[in-house]
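User: My advisor asked me to double-check a structure prediction for histidine kinase before group meeting. I don't want to rely on an old file, so could you generate it fresh from this sequence?
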Amino acid sequence: MFFLRSIRFRITLWYVLTVALILGASGVFWYLSLARTLQTELDDRLLTIATNVAEQVQGAPLQDSALCRGLAHELALSGAGAFVGIYDAQGRLWCETLPDALPDEEAPVLAALAEAGQPRYQTIKRNNDALRILDQPLLLGAAVHGIVRVGTSEKPAQRILDRLTLILLLSFPLPLAALALGGWFLADRALAPVEDITQTISQINTDSLSRRLPQGDERNEIGRLVKNFNHMLEQLENSFRRMRQFAADASHELRTPLTVLRGETEVALRWGKDPEELRQVLESNLEEIDRMGRIIDDLLLLAKSEAGETPMTIKRVNLNQLLHELAMQGKILGENKGIAVSFNLPEKAVLYTDGDELRLHQMLLNLVSNGIKYTPTGGRVDLRLIRADGQAEISVSDTGVGMEAEHLQRIFDRFYRIDSNLTLETGAGLGLSIVKWIIEAHHGRIEVSSKPGEGSCFKVYLPLAAADTDID
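Assistant: Sure, here is a fresh prediction for histidine kinase from the sequence you gave:
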């Protein structure tokens, strides 16, 4: 069954069937063409004989028996294999070169043909033979003198057609067999790369996603298939690598607060006697529980965003007002560290965008919180909103520790943290991943620039709503 279902077999079968159909159609065409040619030649020969007989009969009495004998002798010598009958205008037989050779025809029918003055060709089956008959009116001027009936057997022509049929039938199997073998060989050669691909694919699993198929000529279908499959393997490898890294980082991030919870709880159970000590342990445990809750909430948000299950409430958002509110919140967050938070808004324009106001607020608050978190005491965080190239540009810059250029492409990865920042306040490493997701969900983009010891600047670009208004 596999053999019959294989692509190689089906390609060969369709190839052979197509060629057989073409050969069959060609054979039928040549058969019909030859049959038509032979009949035309036969009709022309009958017409020639009828014309010669009519010329000999012109002016001679139809009762002249010598004329009839002469016609029979002349036809016998010519070897034409034809026989002639001459009838008068009433359809009565006068002369017949070969008795009973012509089929009988009723006299009124022949008289009507003579009167019509038009020749008639017909094929009549008689005694396992087919006779081709021509009825040619015999005219003397405009007057009907009689009718000449000429006939001959179609057996010679049929023998030619039968021989052609036999030749075609005998010549079909051999070329079809040769074509089938050739088609099988060509299909095998054409599908050999597919078989190699199948063998290689069967050896690829989750532990060997780094393997690649040998790259062929990209100008053909197999080469493009290999290229696309290698691209898919690369994407799968990256996805699996991110999944493994995600699982490892998530387990690490959750293990730390769990370890703290376990250790502090065990200490409290063994040695805690003072109510104040127990209270401090419970407060510390509550902090770790809150930390785990935030990590789990962030992970759940990112997982839902990737699955497209995070709903967005899209409405017109006033970016000037949003940035003003964030600046006020930022000032409160920065007071404990002595960090100044300032903002700069367009003086004569109110910029709007269409989006989810809560998500946009969350995104900007994450950027402001990061700026405060990684800026030493006495530093500053600046917020600015401008119109740039038909978009709203929101920049959040700080005077913090900054980053090396090698980190800028990875800071939006989940759980990615820079070792040099571990001495400062640290989070789970999910904030910037959420920031990037929210921006992309709003069809925007984010850019970052940074220098170690000088600070960082994040620029968010969002599409402007059509109803931006200028303030007069």
